[in-house]
Amino acid sequence: MQDVHVLRHQVLVEGRSRIQVARELGISRNTVRRYLGLPEPVRREQGPRRRSVLGLGWP
């Protein structure tokens, strides 16, 4: 998640090219384009995981 913020800052604030940022971070140009097209990334919280059916009866 940290790379997304770095990527967005380098392209949007510093004015660097998408290709240059993609090369430096070692990711695809398509990934850079997708991250820039999204609004500010938000982490979705998930609820607690369900317990395993097999693990309920064992001590």
Task: Write up this protein.
The protein is mainly α and 59 residues long. Helix content is 49%, strand content 0%. The protein contains three helices and no strands. The chain has helices at 2-13, 18-25, 29-37. It is elongated and about 60 Å long. The model has no long low-confidence stretch (mean pLDDT 83).
Concise synopsis of the structure shown:
The protein has three helices and no strands. The protein is an all-alpha fold and 59 residues long.
Low-confidence stretches: none
Q: Radius of gyration over alpha carbons?
A: 19 Å
Shape: elongated
Largest sheet: none
Percent helix, as a range, is: 40-55%
Coarse structural class: mainly alpha
SSE blueprint and pairings:
Elements lengths: L1 H12 L4 H8 L3 H9 L22
Task: Provide the descriptors you would attach to this structure in a database record.
0% strand, 3 helices, 59 residues
